[in-house]
Write a structure and sequence with these properties.
By secondary structure, the chain is of the alpha+beta class. Helix content is 26%, strand content 20%. The chain contains nine helices and 13 strands. Strands 2-1-4-3-5 form a five-stranded antiparallel beta sheet. A five-stranded antiparallel beta sheet has the order 12-11-10-9-13. Strands 6-7-8 form a three-stranded mixed beta sheet, with helices on both faces.
Length: 369
């Protein structure tokens, strides 16, 4: 059968279990239909959860096993009867494990649809030898016995139950795959770092720590870190507390000796989207100010209004009258002028000159014509 003739459907064998794809062939199936398929554990009954028109192109597998038939009422009745039988034989297997003192914990057992094989799922911290137990149970049940080891999370998924939140376990009710959880996620959400307080019935960290982790990271990206020193328009401040849920920041103003709590939105409006770290001011800006030339022009606010306006135009001031100085030192007062006729004064000893006396005695009277 070519790819164009295949009709893939998604089948799930357990609640919140993995979805497997099979070829529906000529069977007309809808979501909720029960079908009989062949798996590695023998014949099993599964429930269609993805109809052919809901299968995505990237989920279309190249090698699909065919669906044998649509489950009949007899198949469903036989499946229920075998399920009750497996529950009784599970107790016998647990007693055998306790009697032989084998370091393993059997959590569940299930038959295939034909009743030819029973599969027991167990957990164990160490590697165990259960070959003798397999032969003993196979002889007692008169059927093939198989043991499969699973992890702690799978144990909680199979056993089902409720956690401290009062809700049914996510892994048993709707979660298909187990996410990767780390202690960093609990720290990001200000949760206690005690593993006993943030662990589920499986003994591992709560899977729900991953649900809001990205939202917390996004919110914390808009806030300064707790304990950091920041520079604000009113001076240096220390971030005492960051409340992600309330979206507030508590600052300790070091100069004013005052604690201020404000929303993040108000903090962004007053100080910008990010508050500058105090190291930026101490290590970069202050050395630049200290290395600035001493003869640097003062701020425009210290100049006269007229000179400030000229400086803004980027040109030097022009003299407004005779003898007006063009330097910064003489900009505030006019240059001192000599008495009338000073240009025609004579130097001591006669002769005309344009400068003052070169000796220590005062200049003499002007020469007669």
């Amino acid at each position: 059968m070519t790819d164009s003739q295949r009709v893939p459907v998604g089948v799930r064998f357990k609640e919140a279990g993995k979805v497997y794809y099979f070829d529906a062939g000529e069977h007309t199936l809808d979501v909720g239909s029960y079908v009989v398929v062949e798996t590695s554990h023998g014949l099993e009954i599964g429930r269609v959860v993805v109809s052919p028109d809901q299968v995505l192109a990237n989920e279309n597998k190249s090698d699909l096993k065919p669906i044998l038939r649509v489950a009949s009422p007899d198949d469903l009745e036989g499946h229920k009867r075998l399920k009750d039988r497996a529950a009784g034989e599970l107790r016998i297997a647990k007693h055998a494990v306790a009697r032989d003192n084998i370091a393993m914990q059997i959590i569940s057992g299930e038959y295939d649809l034909e009743g030819k094989q029973i599969t027991f799922y167990f957990t164990s911290a160490d590697r165990v030898d259960f070959r003798g137990l397999t032969r003993e149970l196979s002889s007692e049940f008169d059927t093939k016995v198989q043991f499969l080891q699973v992890g702690d999370r799978d144990r909680a998924k199979v056993l089902d139950g409720y956690d401290v939140c009062g809700q049914r376990l996510c892994c048993s009710s709707w979660q298909v795959q187990f996410p990767s959880v780390s202690i960093k996620m609990a720290k990001e959400q200000d949760l206690p770092l005690n593993p006993q307080k943030i662990s589920g019935v499986c003994g591992r960290l709560y899977c729900c720590l991953t649900f809001e982790y990205d939202a917390y990271r996004e919110l914390r990206g808009q806030m300064p870190k707790q304990g950091a020193m920041v520079s604000t328009p009113v001076g240096e401040a220390k971030v005492n507390k960051v409340n992600v849920i309330k979206k507030t920041v508590t600052l300790w103003l070091t100069e004013q000796k005052q604690v201020v709590e404000m929303p993040v939105a108000e903090l962004q409006m007053q100080y910008g989207l990010t508050v500058r770290p105090v190291e930026l001011v101490r290590d970069i800006e202050e050395p630049l100010r200290a290395d600035a030339p001493s003869d640097e022009a003062p701020a425009l606010g210290t100049h006269e209004p007229a000179l400030a306006a000229i400086a803004e135009e980027g040109r030097a001031p022009e003299p407004t009258g005779a003898g007006m100085a063009t330097s910064a030192e003489g900009a505030e007062r006019p240059k001192r002028r000599g008495r009338r006729g000073g240009r025609g004064r004579r130097k001591p000893g006669g002769g005309e000159g344009g400068g003052g006396a070169t000796g220590g005695s005062p200049p003499g009277p002007p020469a007669s014509a």
